[in-house]
Amino acid sequence: MSTKRRDFLKLTGLTGLGLVGGSLVGCGTLNAASNAIGSARQPSKQHFNMSGYAAPKIDTVRVGVIGLGSRGPGAVNRLSRIDGVEIKGLGDLLPENVEAVKKRLSSSNHNPTSYSGSEDAWKELCDREDIDLIYICTPWHLHTPMAVYAMEAGKHVAVEVPAAVTVNECWQLVETSEKTKKHCMMLENCCYDFFELLTLNMARQGYFGEIIHAEGAYIHDLLDLNFSKTGYQDMWRLKENYRNGNLYPTHGLGPVCQIMNINRGDKMDYLTSMASNDFHMAARAEELAAKDNFYKEFAGKEYRGNMNTTSIRTSKGRTIMIQHDVTSPRPYSRIHLVSGSKAFARKYPEPARIAKGHEWISPEEFKKLEAEYTPEIVKKVGEMAKKIGGHGGMDFMMDWRLIDCLRNGLPLDQDVYDAASWSVIAPLSEWSVANRSNSIDIPDFTVGSWKTNTPVNLTLEGGGTTGVLA
Questions:
Q1: Which of 74, 162, 289, 307 has CA 20 to 30 A from 443's CA?
Q2: Does residue 11 have a pLDDT over 70?
Q3: Largest CA distance in the chain
Q4: What fold does the segment set 191-377+417-451 form as a domain?
């Protein structure tokens, strides 16, 4: 086995799936390897079906937040504005990050305990008996270990994207959630943006007819941020780009998977992935290293290609296209395209538009559709969400909805099967890119339950009682 192939298998976690045998590196077919990734780790049955699971009601949701460097401080602020929340603990490796966030809470009713100064301090927070929910905002490689530990400690988990970075980690999340009957929700905020919610409700009510094809993306010029010394601690985000695949698929994928009822009537079957060459990152590393010794360790590395395009086919014969580019100089886009047998919608390039034929409907018709199909969650907290903020309000709606479901004993909009199936696209895409874009099976994390699981309901039936603090 070549050193490059061995390093790839270790990085993606495929070595634990029986893929180091002849089906991958010998004379066996690539199709055999594809099947192995779906079956070698997959259990024969579920421990418990978490789809549609409603945990017992929690009157006051006691929260511990881990990771206060980038996303964490905003999450603490949003949670502090939701009625029925008590922030009990804050954890971060750096004490100064914890104290900065605590200072911002000094005028609120929250008085959290600090956990910092060591790499294991977060475990003390998870071990507390007076915590209901652990909210994880740490670097990617820590997401699954922290989520698994928290669930085993009896806590529900909300974890930033991606929830896992290897196939094995995806299965760990699924099996732990099923065994503990604790929620594991990936914090995919784009599922709660306004147009995404509008199109989801339209799809639920049949406006698009049969969904045929969907597209999503994460196209965002982060070249300067990835090389910034102050952007991410220990330059962890830059180092993630040593992997060559669709590394951040969930922003574009999550909303269209909900529209297609993935894991609830359909499932993603297999994918193929192709990447361009790298036209920016290696050159930037060399340029910076010539001026600053700090960057010498990043020079001479192989980085992911600028553009990755991943195509997915579902069991019901529908298709999804997901793109990822964080280095090219182009406008931000998540695409969010929905193509049905009766109508079509697309968000980027802005403005969001809808069509029922060759031409877009008029702005007046669009307003009528908004009035008819805007879901209840937007009517309830949409305007307040815009004021409180977080990517235009979608972050707050996501947090509010999570807390409202926990307080009312409702199933969550996103469950552990979503977290696993949306996250697993990254390591599978790496495999496909490394193998001339050959297709590879996507594991069925529901172990067949997708055939009978019912779709997510975002109409706030039985919920919507949680208030928003001024």
A1: 307
A2: no
A3: 66
A4: Dihydrodipicolinate Reductase; domain 2 (3.30.360)
